[in-house]
Amino acid sequence: MRSSPLEAEVQKGRFITFEGIDGAGKSSQIAAVVSLLGARGLVVEQSREPGGTRLGESLRELLLHEPMHLETEAMLMFAARREHLAARIEPALLRGEWVVCDRFSDATYAYQVGGRGLEPEKFAALETWVHPGLQPDLTLLFDLPPEVAASRVASTGADPDRFEREQRDFFVRVREAYLERARHAPGRICVIDANRSPEQIREEIETLIKERFFA
C-alpha cells in the first residue's frame, strides 16, 4: 500500500537533541547543525529546554534561580517539557520539519537523577507520562571532564545559575549519569569527545548526521 503525500512528508521530520554538562560547548555546534540542515533545504525548528515557549521560559527562570524541593524541580522540568512538546516539537514533527533542541529528557535524568539523587522510578514515570513512545532520532552527547567544563564556564564571566554553582562532585555524577544513559541507548545517543577543537567536533558531527540521515 502506497503512502499518501501527507504521510510521506511527515516521515521526513527528525528530532535531534544536544546534551552535556554546562560548558561542554554545545551552542556553536547547534548553530552549525541548523545551518547544515538548512543548506539542504530543510525546515528546522530550533529550541531549548527548559524553555522553548513563553510558559517554558518563565519556568526556566524559576528552575535556574529559585531554590526548590528536588521533586518540585523534576516536575517543573517535565511541565515545561509537556508545554514545549504540545506547542512546538510535536506540531513541527507532524509538519515534517526537523527539530534541533538544546537538551531534552536525558538532561533531566543526568541532572535530577544523577546529580541530585531523584529516584529513577519517579523519573521514568514522568517520562512515560509526558512523552510516551517519543525519543529523539539522534542525541549528541558532548562529553567533557568536569574541571575543563568549569574552567570554560568561569571564563565567560557570566553570573552562574544555581546549577552552575554546584561543586565538582555534582558534575561528576551528572557526567556519569549521561554516560549511563548512553550505554542503555547506543543506537540513539552518540558520545562526542568535547575536549577537542570546535572544528574537529563540527567535522565529526556533520559526518554523523550525513551517515545517519542522508547516506
From TrEMBL:
One protein family per Pfam: Thymidylate_kin
Top enzyme category: transferase
Listed InterPro entries: P-loop_NTPase, Thymidylate_kin-like_dom, Thymidylate_kinase
Molecular function in Gene Ontology: ATP binding; dTMP kinase activity
GO biological process: one example: dUDP biosynthetic process
Positions with a binding annotation for ATP: 20-27
Key words of the record: ATP-binding, Kinase, Nucleotide biosynthesis, Nucleotide-binding, Transferase
Limits of the Thymidylate kinase-like domain: 18-205
Cellular compartments per GO CC: cytosol
Catalytic function, reaction form: dTMP + ATP = dTDP + ADP
CDD domains: TMPK
Presence of the UniProt keyword Kinase in the record: yes
Keyword Plastid carried by entry: no
EC number: 2.7.4.9
NCBIfam families (UniProt xref): DTMP_kinase
PANTHER family: THYMIDYLATE KINASE, UMP-CMP KINASE 2, MITOCHONDRIAL
Family designation: Belongs to the thymidylate kinase family.
Primary role: Phosphorylation of dTMP to form dTDP in both de novo and salvage pathways of dTTP synthesis.
Name listed for the protein in its UniProt record: Thymidylate kinase
Name of the gene encoding the protein in the UniProt record: tmk
